[in-house]
User: Fold these one by one.
Assistant:
Number 1:
Amino acid sequence: MFYDETKVYLKAGKGGDGCMSFLRQKYIPKGGPNGGNGGRGGDVILLADENVSDLRAFHFKKHWNAKNGEPGKGSDQNGKGGTNCVLKAPLGTEVRDILSNEIVCELLEHDQDFLILEGGKGGRGNATFKSSVNQTPRQFTEGKPGMEGDYIFTLKTIADVGLVGFPNAGKSTLLNVLSNAAPKVASYPFTTLVPTVGVIDYPEDFYSITMADVPGLIEGAAENRGLGHRFLRHVERCKILLFLLDMAATDGRDPIVDFEHLQKELIDYDPRLADKPFLVVGNKKDEENATENILRFRNTLDHFEPLFISAVLEDGLNDLRSVLLKKLK
Ligand SMILES: Nc1nc2c(ncn2[C@@H]2O[C@H](COP(=O)(O)OP(=O)(O)OP(=O)(O)O)[C@@H](O)[C@H]2O)c(=O)[nH]1
Ligand SMILES: [Mg+2]
């Protein structure tokens, strides 16, 4: 299983109460106030960690608390601060406050941290109330409660290029031959069930591009058919989209219609995706019946400057690599 969305309840620590105490010692009458302050409650902090791959930790444990501050004590002892609760989350995590429905933070870089909830302040001990007119203060204050809230954590893959295509178009095959990643390839639809990111190296340019393989889309995905729009969030952050079409129409569909459907699914999911730069690539040009489809595609949709490749035979990949580089660098 791959966990990319989960609801969590977070609570920062309460501040420790201030203490009311007086120095009592033999031969020292009126020793004076000596109640210490309470410690601060711990904060809840989110920390981006590239070694965490999904949100499973939060799926299995939904309540996370920072520790409370300790109360102050006599003899002017201040309470210890509560330990922070540091939550390690994968890169690409987005945190939404359920109450306000606002995005409070996005983790985009390794080691990036974000203070999501602050612990309560510790209370004041009575020693701090001492003044020339109040030599025996009996006041102290209680610690303040820590902040709390319900949040939705959503993981949205970070990659330069997002592969978008129907099942069996050859997305995983393409990522296999272009990058260091090795997603599973098979001739049945929905082979890919979780997003995989691979790195495409350009050693001569000292550059690299990341590409995300996402489970196949089908018509109606935005209404949650097939594996649904759940996975469309993994192309939301990509800088460019690569529409991969099966020119051989192996599953009996028409690549031109496929392209229209894919575009529609993206827009139904989020109209802003229409503004993303994209690239159209027709795959499986090695197959016999691809020839006619390529011709038709060229006749009707040539303005999209489609590229035609065979991922299996690694044909046309150099052109594809350089177009990707040009678009991204
Ligand atoms: N003839 C030919 N077959 C290909 C080509 N690329 C991929 N295939 C085949 O198409 C089938 C599907 O390939 P995948 O890479 O698993 O397709 P996918 O788009 O990742 O599919 P899902 O993960 O199910 O969405 C496999 O049997 C591949 O061997 C190609 O260029 N030519
Ligand atoms: Mg696949």
Number 2:
Amino acid sequence: MSDDPVDLACLVDSLSESQIRELEDAIGARRCREKYGADRIDELLEVWEHVPPCPTCRCREPFKDGSTPQGRARWRCPSCGARFSALTGTIFASAKLPLYKIIRIVEVMCHNASLRLIELTCGVSHPTAHLWRHKVFSTIDSWQEKVMLSGRVWIDEMYFNDTDLLHDLGRKPKRGLSKDLICVVVAIDAHKNVLAVVSENGKPSTKRINAALEAHIEPGSTIVHDCEKAHNALVKKLRLVDERYKANTADPDYLLHMALVNNLCSWIRRYVGRFSCMKSVNLQSYLNWFVYLFRVHRDEEKWPTEERVVRHLALSEGTHLRK
Ligand SMILES: [Zn+2]
């Protein structure tokens, strides 16, 4: 190579549009290799020495058996004989986007970006941004199932407009805590474990409170809540220590003791407010993502958020079904 300095600006100016895109991809791929050690998902899984479970019978002891026409390692299942690649049955199975763009989408999603922001910062189309957001959401669909709250646990309910009903033109919204509002049951404990579950529309019944919380609160915990009657059965069932404050925003005692859960509600409200076009049927997916990120951010000092989320996504076994 010559030692003459290259006039990069001049060089870039001389490139065609398709060459510019090629250059951007090359730079993206290089940054991805620098940060994650690979610029293709199958290579990344190799770097992490990931052994994929059999997509047919979930056997966890497949062995390597040749390679695919694309040069990816092929695996064979000792129990059912299926042959597959590490991407079979994952959200990456037919991914056309280069890995660096997928990772950028995930990184931007760690900051709760809107679809428009994903399109702008990642250079992808609206349908692509939409598709990948749902793919990412699908990997945490069941994430809240294992959330367990203990010690001091605050619970509350919050309400959102049911946008699916509002789209019903000519329909007049009812006033007050009506069936037009979607109820979300939220809970947080002193360790900052969080739960946010969509219940049905309107004020929740005892049955719905139990359905939302029963499996997620350690029996014998202290429950801190307003004086909602629908909570009583849960207190009894789980032998909870009952600490209650009458909801009154003029009462300093209520504000002090309910601050944690009230803050959680306003964080969730602000978060959901960003997705103005969200359909109500997708609210639970958005809440799953909020709760997942809340946990990841909590542990950020131990494990940087973006890297952790990328790893979670790459190793997730969930498949995305187009809705
Ligand atoms: Zn198998």
